Each structure stands twice: as C-alpha cells, then as structure tokens.
C-alpha cells in the first residue's frame, strides 16, 4: 500500500463527492436529522426514551448510512469502468480501497462530529463520558460501515443488488446489537451471534460512555470495531473485481 497513490485516490473521490450536493447532504446531515426526528417523536411523550436509545443510535445511523452510500458508489464506479481504468494504472487494489476508505473516513469525521454535538448539545442527550470519545466511536463505526460497504460491493452486479445486501448485513446487526433487547438477555444462540457482530461492540461503547465516565471498556470495544473495519478492507481488496460481469 503506497501512501501517495492512496491519497490521490482519496482526493479524486472527495472531488466527486463535492460535486454531488445531494450525496454530500445525505452523508453529512442524514444521521443528525434522524436523531432529531427520534428526539422530536418522544419529546412530549417520554423524554427518557431518547436518553436510553440515543447513544445506540449514534452508532447505528452513521454505520448504516455509510454502508449504503459506499456500497452503491463503489459498485457504480466498477460498472462504469472507472475501477478498471484505475487498476490498469499503477494502482494496487489495497491502494484503491484505502483511498476510498480515507475519503469516506474524512466525511465520517464531519458527519459524526455534527451528529454527536447536536445530540449532546441542543437535544440534551445525557452522557457521562467525554464527548470527544463519543465522536471517536461514531467515526470508527462509520468507517466500519464504509469498510463493509466496500467489501460487499465486490459481490453485487448492480446498484439494486448492492442495496439488497443491506437486509443481510445491516438489519441482523441492528436487531442483535442491544437496541431492542439487552444483549445479556438474548437467547443463548442469539447472544453468541451478537458477540461476533461488530455493531454490538460499537453500541456497547456508546452505552458505556453514556453511563460511566470511565473509558477503559469503551476503548476495548472500539478496538474490536476497528479490527473488523481493517479486516473488511483487506477482504475487500482480495475480492475486488475490475468490472461488473
């Protein structure tokens, strides 16, 4: 993996994103708008609901949005022959996916910063841990969504198929991450499955930071999520095809 090539690929991706105003609005604002919508729903009914589920959603929304956008964008570039042209040039697969991950990662930093600051600020989400740690977990979780999106895009032949991976990859993690039922209350088989799903650790980190000022457990969970993200990029590089068949 060569830093110069990776940065060049990232710069090209960022240039494309900057020209697509709708895509940028979706990437930067959609998670925040979804959190605001949830807060608004329960503001007059039971405000404690937002404090209870808000930290988990700070992990879930960036992950989901980045997975969807990355998988579709990468598939579109492969179908259009862009990836083939880049791979004919002296660009290794890991350079290519590293550039995509870097570009979307920079977007994820802004996305996560806005979402966390709005939640912990105007929306009044109560957190015991440092806000910067919440932002870091949200960024790494968004990078996980990016990495998994890059990985699954190698197996799709159309943008519609890329979207179809969402029920298979995202929804099981959403159901078993502890948002609806605490993970330690799940049936044994489902608890075991939850233990090998990366989103579970991101939600655990957010939940820990919302109730405790200690960050040791959150750092351990964050390391697991980061490990999954790196593994997904490496698997994506190994399976990336130049063009859609």
From TrEMBL:
Keyword Transport: yes
Chief location of this protein within or outside the cell: membrane
Annotated ABC transmembrane type-2 domain residues: 17-243
GO process terms (BP): response to antibiotic
UniProt cross-references to Pfam families, sorted A to Z: ABC2_membrane
Record localization: Cell membrane
InterPro entries linked to this entry: ABC-2_transporter_component, ABC2_TM, ABC2_TM_bact-type, ABC_2_transport
Single GO term (MF): ABC-type transporter activity
Protein name as annotated: Transport permease protein
Organism name: Nocardioides marinisabuli
Lineage of the organism: Bacteria, Bacillati, Actinomycetota, Actinomycetes, Propionibacteriales
């Amino acid at each position: 993996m060569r830093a110069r090539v990776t940065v060049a690929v990232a710069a090209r991706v960022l240039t494309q994103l900057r020209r697509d105003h709708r895509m940028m609005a979706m990437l930067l604002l959609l998670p925040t708008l979804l959190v605001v919508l949830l807060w608004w729903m329960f503001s007059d009914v039971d405000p404690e609901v937002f404090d209870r589920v808000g930290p988990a959603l700070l992990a879930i929304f960036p992950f989901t949005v980045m997975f969807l956008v990355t998988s579709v964008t990468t598939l579109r570039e492969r179908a259009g022959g862009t990836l083939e042209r880049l791979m004919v040039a002296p660009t290794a697969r890991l350079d290519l996916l590293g550039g995509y991950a870097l570009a979307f990662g920079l977007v994820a930093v802004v996305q996560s910063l806005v979402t966390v600051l709005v939640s912990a600020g105007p929306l009044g989400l109560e957190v015991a841990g440092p806000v910067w740690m919440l932002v870091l977990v949200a960024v790494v979780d968004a990078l996980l969504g990016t990495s998994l999106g890059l990985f699954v895009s190698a197996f799709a032949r159309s943008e519609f198929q890329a979207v179809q991976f969402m029920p298979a990859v995202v929804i099981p993690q959403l159901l078993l991450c502890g948002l609806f039922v605490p993970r330690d209350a799940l049936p044994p088989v489902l608890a075991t499955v939850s233990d090998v799903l990366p989103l579970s650790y991101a939600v655990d980190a957010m939940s820990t930071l919302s109730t405790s000022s200690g960050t040791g457990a959150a750092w351990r969970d964050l390391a697991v999520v980061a490990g999954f993200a790196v593994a997904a990029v490496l698997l994506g590089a190994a399976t990336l095809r130049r063009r859609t068949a």
